[in-house]
Design brief:
The chain is of the alpha/beta class and 197 residues long. It is built from eight helices and five strands. The mean pLDDT is 97.
Length: 197
């Protein structure tokens, strides 16, 4: 195995996926639309809730951190909760209700009408994300999905399903965090652009 060639191959695959996103006008429009929906929710005093499993859980926490702290510049924090982080809640729900209801119960407890839920799943078929999307529908919470190229079951369950044009989990996850960063950038600019120095 040639390590240099392996490194080059991984970087080239990542670039190719991002170029496919850049060339997809529909996908770019979905990202822009999602950013405006999130902006409107914040302007109305609402919040974002995020969830995923494994690497997607880490992405949920990462994006929430950018909203609550800051992205490009100093400004007031904005309400965002990664519902993947509280071990007592996660283990209580997992033990009492099962892993599939991990996020559904938290949406019922923490979500309110007008909030935005960002569900992240490379396959688009994560059972606990699908249950969370059902709870969002019942509570009039707008839903944004981040998935891989076919969208799985999430493509029919989300208000907006942003499908990364790849079937490779690492490429999908790399692009999910890119899209998360773009959402943070646009929302921060929309809400606080006048505070930039």
């Amino acid at each position: 195995m040639n390590i240099q060639n392996l490194i080059k191959e991984q970087i080239e695959k990542s670039i190719k996926t991002k170029q496919a996103i850049l060339a997809n006008d529909e996908l770019m429009g979905q990202i822009a639309n999602a950013a405006e929906i999130i902006t409107d929710a914040y302007r109305n005093g609402k919040k974002t809730l995020l969830a995923g499993n494994g690497g997607s859980a880490a992405d949920a926490q990462h994006i929430a951190g950018e909203f609550v702290s800051k992205f490009y510049f100093d400004r007031p924090g904005i309400a965002s909760i990664a519902i993947t982080t509280d071990t007592s809640i996660l283990t209580a729900i997992g033990n009492d209700y099962g892993y599939e209801r991990l996020f559904e119960r938290q949406i019922q407890a923490q979500g309110v009408c007008g909030d935005v839920f960002i569900g992240i799943s490379t396959s688009g078929n994560s059972a606990n994300i699908l249950k969370a999307l059902e709870a969002c529908r019942e509570n009039k919470i707008f839903t944004i999905g981040l998935t891989g190229e076919n969208g799985g079951k999430m493509k029919e369950a989300c208000d907006i399903c942003i499908k990364v044009p790849s079937s490779e989990t690492p490429r999908i996850q790399e692009s999910h965090i890119l899209i998360g960063h773009i959402l943070c950038c646009i929302v921060e600019e929309n809400l606080f652009g006048d505070l930039k120095k």
